[in-house]
Amino acid sequence: MKNLLAILFVLMAVIPVKADDGGESENPTLPPAVSLSYIYLDSDSESGSDNSSDGTRVRLFFSDTEGVDYIVLEMLKAGSILPNKALISDMSKGYFDTTIWHNTTFTAVAYNNADEHTRGIPLFVPVKITDENLPPLISLTYTYLDSDGDTDDNTSSDTKIRLSFSDTERVDRIVILCLREGFRTPNKIQITNVEKGYFDTAINLNTTFTPIAYNDYGHTSGVPLFVPVKPTADVVEVEELDLEVARMLIYNLDGSIVFDGTPAAFSIDNLSSGLYIKKEILSDGGINTAKIIVR
Asked: Which of 20, 185, 288, 295 has the most CB atoms less than 10 A away?
């Protein structure tokens, strides 16, 4: 019995009795979660913070700041692990101007005078896409390479060509679509070393090349370039028609067809002066290709 009374005495000494005074807890109240919203700023708008004509200028509005002494604004750009931070001590303004060059997630962390804090809901702000952000249209040209020229795709029976490209400012990489004549789906070539300025390859069919330029803001498709297989025959003038030809096609150098029919229906008088590609499909399925000079 004496042991039981001793234990009760110890418990009463250790555990305080809570007074029922009807008052509230003395623990400081956490600051509220600050809400963020944004608008894009025009190039001629006033900005009270970071300012650059190269990036996207945004104005971040914050609300629900009662009981908040200051805000730490975390700015996490796409692809980064750690955010940049900005201290906002004057909240009477109600907004904060900044400039972003990448898609960015903003989080407002509200603090009170006891340095306790509350994190708000993150706000994702994408970069505003303009013509100045997107990569330019890539222009392609081509030249035939000699048989001993180096190519990235080389067989002895193919036509070896060099594709040269220009206007590569703000271009991170290029994807070239290679659509061979008679096919529906193009092959793709990816070029990451755009500073080189050219790409060597080989074709065994007439091929249309379309460059697509990429950067962080998007992509643009350039003008398609038609490249005919280099004829094995010498340059000839049209004088006589081969009666064994079942079908004949005449191409402009840009790949457009100016004639498609039988040799009997063809007349050189219908061609303007210039250089053309003639493709003859023989009755046995063979194909002859040659250049035509019309003077």
From this structure: 288
Q: Is residue 209 part of a domain?
A: yes
Given a contact cutoff of 8 angstroms between Cβ atoms, the answer to whether 163 and 198 are in contact is: yes
Compute the distance between CA of residue 283 and CA of residue 154 in angstroms, rounded to an integer: 31
- Is pLDDT of 40 > 60? yes
First to last CA, the chain: 129
Q: Tokens 């009997």 sit at which residue? A: 264
**Is 190 part of a structural domain of the chain?**
yes
Q: What angle do CA 174, 186, 162 make, to 5 degrees?
A: 55
Burial of 156: CB neighbours in 10 Å, binned 0-12, 13-18, 19+: exposed
Give me 193's structure tokens. 């070393």
The pTM score is 0.46
245 within 8 A of 278, measured Cβ to Cβ: no
Contact 124, 151 (CB under 8 A): no
Evaluate if residue 50 carries a pLDDT over 50: no
**Token couple for 279:** 């493709």
Shared-domain flag, residues 115 and 150: no
Give the span between the Cα atoms of 255 and 207, in whole angstroms: 9
What's the Cα-to-Cα distance from 172 to each of 134, 140, 143, rounded to whole Å?
11, 17, 24
Q: How far apart are CA 120 and CA 71, in angstroms?
A: 10
- Do the domain assignments include residue 3? no
Residue 269 sits in which domain range? 245-294
How far is residue 151's CA from residue 93's CA, in Å, rounded to a whole number?
Answer: 62
pLDDT at 55: 78
User: Which of the listed residues 177, 194, 227 is the one where a domain comes to its end?
Assistant: 227
Does residue 144 sit in the same domain as residue 217? Answer: yes
Q: Is residue 176 within 8 Å of residue 212, measured between CB atoms?
A: yes
CATH of the domain at 94: 2.60.40.10
Rounded to whole angstroms, the Cα distance separating 250 from 248 reads 7
